[in-house]
Model the fold of this input.
Amino acid sequence: MKTESRYLLTKEAIEKGADLPEWLLEEYKTFSQVVNDPTFPCYFGRTAQRKGELRYSYIEHNKWSHLPEAVESFLSLFEEPNPKRHGLFIFVEPESTEKSLEYYRSYFWDILQYLHHYDRFRWPHEAPKDPDHFLWDFHFAGQPIFTFGNAPAYKQRKTRNLGNSLILGFQPRAIFQGLEGTEKGGIMSREKVRARVEKWDGLPKHPDISHYGDPDHNEWKQSFIGDDIEPIKGKCPFHHKDS
Done:
């Protein structure tokens, strides 16, 4: 699976800015300012950004074809011995005028559907294909990934507003080793982060936020939560291509 993509960017590459769209440089600057804030709730994200352990990619409204290769290239980092806890952030070209939260949510799922459609690898046999199954999560190149959306339409949940772009966060399950929802370290870390999130946002934890493996929880719902405290209703927009 080891591939290299010029669309998978390191901190050093994106800060040099060579041959990159101006809008991306502006949005990365905002992203960096927010995540580097000493009070930013996600300690792990802030540390990874500072150490240069995050990776970045981007798409323009009419140019998505490079994205599957970029995500594959990102996942290949985990084939190295003792890999770091890398995360990937995908920046989407900003809209000319800010859109609604539902618009960005739909765009988010369209991107995941696109990646799934062009995935060269089979969905793992043992992994549920139905998003309503409590053990479902998004897979790409055979790897389970927690995906989450950030958008300018978030006004109350400020931790999900990282600039003018729709920004998709990808966290492979591999980075949670030892920090799973049922492990002591995971429970403590999660509670600390969520307490800081509530303080930043000025809102209680969203009711759809839980941990992977919770039988009363649907993972897809916390991928793009509401800007409120209302549970998400309806069906997941994602459809498995073999279903």
Remarks:
- DSSP finds six helices and five strands in the chain.
